[in-house]
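LAB NOTEBOOK - FOLDING QUEUE
OPERATOR: T.R.
BATCH SIZE: 2
PURPOSE: Compare the predicted structure-token outputs for two unrelated chains run back to back under identical settings.
PRIORITY: normal
REVIEWER: second-year student, initials M.K.

ITEM 1
FIELD SEQUENCE / FIELD STRUCTURE:
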Amino acid sequence: MIKHPPSVTLTKEEYMALSKAKKILENPSFAIKASNYIGKPIEFAIEKIDSKMLSEATSKALRKSLDIAVSTIDTQKETSSNSNLLHKTMVASSGAVGGFFGLPALAIELPISTTIMLRSIADIAKSQEHDLSHMAIRLSCLEVFALGSNKTQSDNAAESAYYSTRATLAIEMKAALKAVEKMSTQAIQDALKRGQMPLLIKFIGTVASRFGLTVSEKLVAQSIPVIGSAGGAAINLMFIQHFQDMAEGHFTVKRLENRYGEEAVEKIYNEIILL
């Protein structure tokens, strides 16, 4: 057993799981993965992306995902390793379309791939013992899209980028949950369609601003002339794997927080030294 002051004791397996989660969550750059694949850096071209188009596409994709998170995530379906493989195949197929048609396909392809990724993230949450019937867990699935961009890196190297991002989202997420706590799923869904859930929409807007950075990295990688359909599929496969990894780390941390308390787990997380 590995002991940590003041009184929390993790099993060896739990400590190893938390260490693995930290390694994932504190080394999140999709840009580096994409650059390694295409053989050239992509950061230089990100500033050339049409920011208005990107903002509209990411907001639309996450609003669609919010509707799904509220209403249609299957809380009873058993998860399996095959389901994540299916999600990867589906996202790779949509990426082939994006790679072939380039930037104009973003508005069509991104909502599709984001929806597929959300369902995969939900499966991962269930595999980590979280109950998808709770709205807090459903919003935590959406929270994953805010993880894993360099925008979250702190100027203080000792500070966790992961916990910094969660702290940024915490107030808005808490307000959104309070706004819906006495509402039925159908009532929430109807209100969203009428644009009457400003706190939920504000939460999604904050997530979208962070998700947009990773999307821009993906978009630049897919727009490289030599990439084409096959490369577009490969980039999208990396894209979903990226967020599946983020979800695995995120819901591992939250599972341990449920067991030992957020403060205790954060303290142990920050004490872990990555090799």
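ITEM 2
FIELD SEQUENCE / FIELD STRUCTURE:
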Amino acid sequence: MDKNTEWEWEIKPEERWFHLNLKDLIQYKDLLFRFVRRDILISYQQTILGPIWVFLQPLLTTLVYFVIFTKIAKIPTGKIPAILFYLPGTIIWTYFSECLNGTMNTFFANAYIFRKVYFPRLITPLSIILFHSFRLCIQLVLFVLVYLFFMYSHHDVTPSWWILIVPFMILISAVFALGLGLIVSVITAKYRDLDNILQFVLRLFMFAAPVVYPLSIVPEKYKLLFWLNPLTSVIETSRAAFFAPHIVYPEYILLSVISVVVILFVGLTLFRKREIEVMDVI
């Protein structure tokens, strides 16, 4: 063999396109819950009202929607009392948007930790989802109390058996926010100016779901576009669960499940393949 022959060796670990390394996530479960606890404590430090903001936020937003869309814009809410119509949509939308915002800023918010110590990076977006899920549970208690008040105040408010799948519908919104947030986190880490654009798009995205209006007022030719948004199924099914006889569309629920699973698959794959490269960028 020629002594002048040059050899180049490159040693790389074997990687698969979809390798979540769930074993590591299980091993670091204590760290996951520590992050959740940290977020809970930080969110109420140096505040006057503290945890009361968990209740005030959806209530104040609902009152604003009630004044603007019911009293001024005169948008009908059918047989559903206006407050009860806006409250669940507000809670679900706030949950989704906060999960998405927190997840999409994973690298920027935790760069100082990522550079110092190793742990599965997926721990941080999962902790964000769990933290906002904790807040959601508290806000759902508020909704149930308001709901019971209207039920026993001689209003035509009756739950249906679809109430059993409400936790599943909330899970769909969480998975949707997680998958979409992971995709956006990788993109915005490289192109930071996209964050401003995405914040604007997120505000508009609220009107692509029936948060402040009933789906019945949407023209028939545009309804399919609205149903393509997984949040439409989540909000509409949740309303149907508490306000019988509201119509539920199982075929659109299935479409939402398929959509969010695909988005989650893409998000997890992209996040796992680019998490190390992104740290060199930020």
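REVIEWER COMMENT (ITEM 2): The mean pLDDT is 83.
FOLLOW-UP: none requested
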